[in-house]
């Protein structure tokens, strides 16, 4: 009986090890790319301010009215179509977003003197890094590949924990590796670094999936359908015309939780639209925040927080004619899923607890790089010539458990579920090859 249990446990171990190996072999290069680009982009706020310091920074004791700053901009760019104005925080300049033909531009205004400090394109040197990190420069297909790699990274962390767990020993010991020699040293360090990093990496990876094409869309659908993100017109004021436009379509600096919210429409009237001074007086959001201007005669002023910290997020829509608040949503109004994802995204981007968050993010990225490199070293030191030489699991009960796990992953991580089916076919094909070779011999 004891021997049978041991046999099944070994079969399960072999099954998990094979899946762990497949994932590491296929996605290791992508993990390194994501870790390198992600660790650099954590410092995007500091790097961008360093690059455009003369434009983006400004010391001021008092401010000119926002309409005065707007007029100063229009004096230099009279034909410009303004799309947004970002009101500054301490030590910052006012940012005006506008279209130059089909190109988005940013012009910076000194809040106290209304002097134009400079103009640049909305695209920055960090945009290439974002493209690599999010799509591997491969467009939609690249985004799917990144999402697939992120999904498998979660599988790797789960299976790796199982493989490294000290059976019959004190679990605390797995956090403190025994520094042996050769492959044993690499194995101990590989497991310990992965375990020390696992919780933070799972949070970073899971929150990153919120931007992905498949899982991200599914999360938005779940949050909207269950009102665990932000309900349509959440905490709105009075009846309002119907709209089919979402916040992300008409505004900048939009929080994740309100990106898919339908934007209420202004009621056209004989009145002239209110000016920006009135908009600023109507909102009480902590600076910095962005005011996106109305698009068309039924458009609204959309005010979104750019303060950086998730607990200060806000999205407010104002009627462009009356100045009436049509809807107002803050972090406190989010549902449980919206709050969790918002905090996760802030941690992912290094905004949750300042510089320390950024340093923790870098440490996690370096940990991931070490785990990938050490896995390659272990593989080389193991001296296994081919995949066929890896042990296969034949226990039917184990196969059923693996099948259930595949089903669960297919529901929660769709691309991972599909890819696992592909790997299963590949695994079966290898088994058939091995069996035929044994029969032929």
TrEMBL record:
Keywords: Membrane, Transmembrane, Transmembrane helix
Residue ranges crossing the lipid bilayer per the database entry: 21-43, 144-165, 193-214, 359-380, 401-426
Transmembrane is among the record's keywords: yes
Pfam families: PepSY_TM
Top-rank taxon: Bacteria
Protein name from the UniProt record: PepSY-associated TM helix domain-containing protein
Organism name: Exiguobacterium aestuarii
């Amino acid at each position: 009986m004891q021997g049978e249990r041991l046999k099944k446990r070994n079969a399960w171990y072999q099954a998990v090890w094979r899946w762990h190996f497949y994932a590491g072999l296929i996605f290791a290069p992508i993990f390194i790319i994501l870790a390198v680009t992600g660790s650099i982009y954590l410092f995007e706020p500091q790097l961008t301010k360093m690059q455009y310091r003369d434009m983006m920074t400004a010391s001021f004791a008092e401010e000119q009215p926002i309409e005065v700053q707007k007029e100063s901009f229009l004096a230099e760019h009279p034909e410009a179509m303004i799309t947004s104005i970002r009101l500054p925080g301490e030590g910052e300049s006012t940012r005006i977003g506008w279209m130059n033909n089909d190109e988005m531009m940013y012009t910076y205004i000194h809040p106290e003197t209304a002097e134009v400090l400079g103009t640049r394109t909305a695209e920055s040197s960090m945009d290439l890094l974002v493209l690599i990190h999010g799509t591997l420069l491969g467009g939609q297909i690249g985004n799917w590949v990144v999402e697939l790699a992120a999904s498998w990274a979660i599988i790797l962390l789960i299976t790796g924990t199982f493989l490294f767990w000290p059976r019959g020993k004190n679990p605390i010991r797995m956090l403190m590796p025994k520094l042996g020699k050769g492959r044993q040293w690499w194995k101990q360090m590989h497991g310990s670094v992965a375990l020390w990093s696992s919780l933070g990496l799972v949070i970073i990876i899971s929150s990153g999936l919120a931007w992905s094409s498949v899982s991200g869309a599914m999360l938005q659908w779940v949050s909207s359908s269950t009102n665990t993100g932000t309900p349509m017109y959440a905490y709105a004021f009075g009846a309002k015309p119907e709209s089919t436009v979402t916040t992300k379509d008409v505004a900048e600096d939009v929080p994740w939780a309100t990106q898919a919210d339908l934007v209420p429409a202004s009621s056209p009237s004989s009145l002239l639209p209110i000016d920006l001074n009135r908009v600023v007086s109507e909102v009480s959001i902590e600076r910095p925040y962005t005011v996106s201007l109305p698009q068309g005669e039924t458009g609204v002023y959309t005010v979104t927080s750019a303060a950086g910290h998730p607990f200060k997020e806000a999205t407010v829509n104002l009627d462009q004619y009356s100045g009436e608040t049509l809807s107002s949503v803050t972090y406190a109004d989010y549902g449980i899923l919206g709050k969790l994802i918002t905090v996760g995204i802030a941690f992912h981007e290094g905004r949750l607890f300042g510089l320390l968050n950024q340093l923790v993010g870098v440490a996690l990225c370096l940990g991931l790089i070490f785990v990938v490199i050490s896995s390659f070293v272990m593989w080389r030191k193991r001296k296994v010539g081919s995949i066929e030489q890896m042990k296969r699991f034949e226990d039917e009960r184990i196969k059923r458990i693996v099948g259930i796990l595949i089903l669960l992953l297919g529901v929660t991580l769709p691309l991972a579920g599909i890819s696992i089916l592909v790997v299963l076919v590949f695994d079966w094909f290898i088994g058939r090859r091995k069996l035929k070779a044994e029969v032929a011999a």
